[in-house]
Design brief:
alpha/beta, eight-stranded mixed beta sheet, five-stranded mixed beta sheet, 14 helices, globular, binds FE(8)-S(7) cluster, binds iron/sulfur cluster
Length: about 500
């Protein structure tokens, strides 16, 4: 990113120092070189990378060895996917073919993950056959896996053997009493173990696996499903524990539970958190942990940039018809990756020059140059629409999601994303756009500005009426620059009350 990096904390040995892994700026600058090399093009481990690089999943793992109350086996794994969407399970051979076809056609695809629809490590033969083939045939693709952790300790050697540098463990609790309310059973040593006893085994295996992985230098991300009233407050403790054991990143995701998903929680009416509750918990955890805030809870067969799914372009029949010259594809992929690296380097240089000109290392808005700092002003949430590349390049009416940023005197930080339905797929006719616009307005709750490449006449009035200022003046600009500029305009226009002196932080 181009703007102020909010460096809230000093660097630590365990990974990112700030909340920057899910945040802004040259978030990787403080990391040791070998860690940077691992995460710079992984769209989940680096917020910056997710604007430029894509991932894909292959659904080769149908079975699971535990039961989560938020999962129905008929649907994708809730660890890493939206419930309610069925995946086609592939054989390892089909999966390898698909990966190579996608890599040849989407050169920005850097990471192959196995994340379901069950648990990859409960299907070790299928999972490792896929990894083995791919590491031989497509060595330029990073391999990634997501697991519930029950079978992790016995799989660590095999994971290391295949050069799997990124492992996600879904850890929802470190207390078996909490676990008993999330996991009705685990399947352990050929027996189904119920309730608290089963949860205790799962927790022990997760923590052991985490330690074994970090001891080998494998980067571990911990995913946690926030279940209000069950583990929400407890996740602060989870964050501390997993950080102490060497986890690199913590991803707190909202529970998705609807009756039509057929899950226990869905049927029992267990509610998921609101945007505000999720952000509050993520902020509370951030004091101890690098937080991921850009997770899209992907399907187990997702393809493309986070937030998009191009799976339909790569169905088995279409792949069969494709001629793939992977040698040539690797050359093309390397060129595209080098081009992105050059683009990012230019942005980093511009940011460094900005900071130097402003006379301060970071943590202040670009545009506030010189020695005098204005008084601290209240934070403002702004939504942006983007198709990727880190710039504002999506029309308001075409957006499938809003990225939400918080601008304050301290800088610009990424808060999260909110899914929506594009209210207008065409330029002039908006069909049943009214209800979709209502949905967009609801998703924009709490935001005072929405920045898009273009905002049409039709939504303009309702947005203003809802207290959200539409803004199309920063089309094609880097997101953080644009957000900072608008914040500065608001400050100059007197729209931001200075914070009381007692609430101002030392600059
Ligand atoms: Fe897939 Fe997971 Fe690897 Fe990413 S997803 S296995 S780490 S490549 Fe990413 Fe998707 Fe969130 Fe997962 S956005 S659900 S965190
Ligand atoms: Fe479902 Fe994944 Fe939990 Fe297994 S680990 S029950 S597949 S959410």
């Amino acid at each position: 990113m181009d703007l102020p990096v909010i460096n809230a904390q000093p660097a630590t040995a365990g990974g990112c120092a700030s909340n920057a892994c899910g945040s802004t700026g040259d978030q990787l600058a403080h990391l040791p070189e070998h860690i940077r090399a691992k995460v710079h093009n992984h769209p989940c481990y680096s917020e910056q990378a997710h604007h430029y690089f894509a991932r894909m999943h292959v659904a080769v793992a149908p079975a699971c060895n535990i039961q989560c109350h938020y999962c129905n086996r008929k649907y994708d794994c809730s660890n890493e996917s939206r419930p309610g969407v069925v995946s086609e399970v592939l054989t390892p051979e089909q999966a390898v073919k698909k990966v190579m076809a996608v890599a040849a056609n989407i050169p920005q695809m850097t990471v192959l993950g196995i994340a379901g629809p069950g648990d990859p490590l409960a299907n070790p033969a299928r999972t490792f056959a896929t990894f083995r083939e791919l590491s031989a045939k497509a060595p330029d693709i990073k391999l990634c896996v997501s697991t519930n952790g029950l079978a992790l300790p016995e799989s660590v050697e095999e994971l290391a053997k295949h050069n799997i540098d990124h492992v996600t463990i879904t850890i929802n609790c470190v207390d078996p009493d909490v676990g008993a309310r999330i996991y009705p059973w685990v399947f352990w040593k050929n027996k189904r173990i119920l309730g608290r006893e089963g949860a205790a085994i799962l927790i022990e295996q997760q923590q052991k696996g985490l330690e074994m992985l970090t001891a080998r230098g494998i980067l571990v991300k911990v995913n946690s499903v926030m279940i209000p009233g069950i583990n929400d407050e407890h996740l602060i403790e989870v964050s501390k524990v997993v950080k102490a054991r060497g986890a690199f990143l913590h991803n707190v995701m909202p529970l998705i539970a609807e009756p039509e998903h057929g899950t226990f929680y869905g049927l029992m009416g267990q509610a998921g958190p609101t945007h505000e509750e999720l952000q509050k918990l993520q902020d509370a955890c951030a004091g101890d942990m690098n937080m991921m805030r850009h997770c899209r809870q992907c399907r187990a067969d997702a393809v493309g940039m986070l937030g998009e799914d191009r799976g339909q372009e790569f169905t088995l029949d279409k792949i069969e018809a494709m001629e793939i010259d992977y040698e040539a594809a690797m050359v093309r992929r390397a060129e595209v990756h080098a081009q992105i690296a050059r683009e990012l380097a230019i942005k980093d240089q511009a940011r460094a020059a900005n900071a130097e000109f402003a006379g301060r290392p970071s943590g202040r808005l670009v545009g506030l140059k010189g020695d005098l700092q204005p008084p601290e002003t209240r934070p403002v949430l702004m939504a942006v629409t983007t198709k990727g590349g880190g710039v504002i390049n999506e029309h308001f009416g075409h957006a499938h999601e809003f990225l939400v940023y918080e601008a304050s005197s301290a800088g610009v930080r990424f808060i999260g994303h909110r899914k929506t339905t594009p209210f207008c797929e065409g330029n002039s006719s908006c069909g049943d756009g009214e209800s979709a616009l209502d949905e967009s307005l609801r998703m924009l709750q709490g935001c005072e500005v929405v920045l898009s490449a273009k905002v049409g006449f039709e939504p303009w009035g309702p947005l203003e009426a809802a207290g959200i200022q539409p803004n199309g003046e920063h089309a094609m600009e880097p997101i953080e620059d644009a957000v900072a500029a608008v914040y500065e305009e608001m400050r100059k226009a007197g729209k931001l009350d200075p914070l009381p002196v007692s609430e101002q932080k030392a600059a």
